[in-house]
């Protein structure tokens, strides 16, 4: 391989690498008055995520329980008949239960966090409304003192 050919291959590889790197940033030349690089999420989006997490929690709780009970029964039956597969199935069932609990905890965490966030924002809005109305009453009092 000639030196020039090696240099061309390195340049091509560098071009491909730099193009991939540009994908990880917000393009600066996107223009437009409404263009922003920030993530924007509305209440409906958060409600949909919370509902999906809650639904997954409910369904996974019901269905994973059926799977666990059936698998434990099968493992017990296989073991009592002298099949080594019974012990392996029991091990898989234990891992299934552990992983299911982890997933259920994650779903509950998502759902609970979104519910807490919604309630906290409602409390913040109420506080801000009270503070603003207090300022308006205070302003009215100053206007009354000035004779307006």
Terminal CA distance reads: 91 Å
- Which whole number gives the mean pLDDT? 78
Secondary structure: number of strands: 0
Order of helices and strands: HHH
Provide the helix percentage: over 70%
Q: What's the main sheet like?
A: none
Radius of gyration: 30 Å
In the predicted model, the low-confidence regions spanning at least 5 consecutive residues are 20-24
Contiguous helical run count: 3
Brief write-up:
The chain is an all-alpha fold and 148 residues long. The chain has one domain.
Q: How would you characterize this protein structure?
A:
The structure is a single chain. The chain is an all-alpha fold. It has one domain (41-146). Helices cover 81% and strands 0% of the residues. Helix 2 (43-80) runs antiparallel to helix 3. The longest helix has 62 residues, at 85-146. It is flat and about 95 Å long. The N and C termini lie far apart (91 Å). The model is unreliable at 20-24 (pLDDT under 50).
